[in-house]
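Journal club side-thread
Mid-discussion, someone asked how the predicted structure for our own chain would compare to the paper's figures. Pasting it here so we can look after the session.
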Amino acid sequence: MIRRILLLSVFVALTNMVIGQDEGKKKLEADFERYKREREQDYQEFVRKREAELKQMEQEYLEFYSQMTGLKKHFAEKKEPEKVQVVQDMIDYENNVAKTLGFKIPERIKENPVAKNNADTQAEKTESTAKTSANTENKISSETATTLKADNSIRDGIPVLIPVPKRLAKITSPFGLRIHPTLGRPIKHNGVDFGSGRGAEVYAASSGKVVLTEYNRSYGIYVIVEHQEGSSSVYAHLEKIIVSKGSRIKKGELIGYTGKTGRTSGPHLHYEVRIKGIPVDPSGYLIESR
């Protein structure tokens, strides 16, 4: 009798244990599903905000491009061929980068009445208007950095690594309005400059594919790496590159070395982040370092 009672007790205990494990498993599965839903909601919210931001940034980029075409006409009328060439080199660079990344500038301008009709007025865009735009961009950059820091899953495939060694990662010229060193007037800077000096290592900000290696008289030797989620990174004024078009590279892999090729007052890295071909403030993406 005692043996039967003991066996029954063991059976009941094992049954309860199995039931408890099953309930625990179901709870874990439910918690995991809830976590996935929350992460998906966070990601979709991030995407929604980025789409709204990109729409605004696209408008400003098209206005910048129209400013360049207006400036070219302005300097041609003033018979300043050297400045015409500087502007043309900038336009050629934008066309090349945009084409490589699938952003069709002429078609977008045709669809955009503001950019299409304001080429001449954009050539004389006031500093105060540009500063207002820069303030908005800084706000967007700050929000992007906060989101990327908070959620590692969103950072996958996005250029978040500072592209030069941490000790050399001082930004000497930020994204946004600045007095152009050659043209001497306020013009938007579509990237950031790292005052890294000559010969500093330049790293891929995220894994991706090298889609262009090129030379431009203004930006010198530059490389474009295409990542995921429509993002890409651009590295300019390089002295030497060790990657080639079509090659696959990993985050942190060496791309080349800083220099002073093109029009520049000193050796540095001009670095850009573009989303769907549209330049955005890189400072919001400078999350990791090495």
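Post-session note: The longest helix spans residues 2-77.
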